[in-house]
Specification:
- By secondary structure, the protein is mainly α.
- It has one domain (about 5-70): Orthogonal Bundle (Helix Hairpins), CATH 1.10.287.310.
- The protein contains 3 helices and no strands.
- The relative contact order is 0.15.
Amino acid sequence: MKSKEIRELSDVEAQAKVRDLRQELFNLRLQQQGARLERPSRLHDVRRDVARIETILRERQLKAVASKSEK
């Protein structure tokens, strides 16, 4: 997922996406333990997507706090 796509999501949608990706990551780890993982690179991709979304959510949170403190 690209950051541009993530920035277009609302906070609620982004949090739901993180939840879904974390569940997928859990399932991929289980498959990896059972040696049935078809695309090991998917683990890397999902972890990066989670990090991107959480970073953007944190930026939004800090921006909101900064705008409140300016008033």
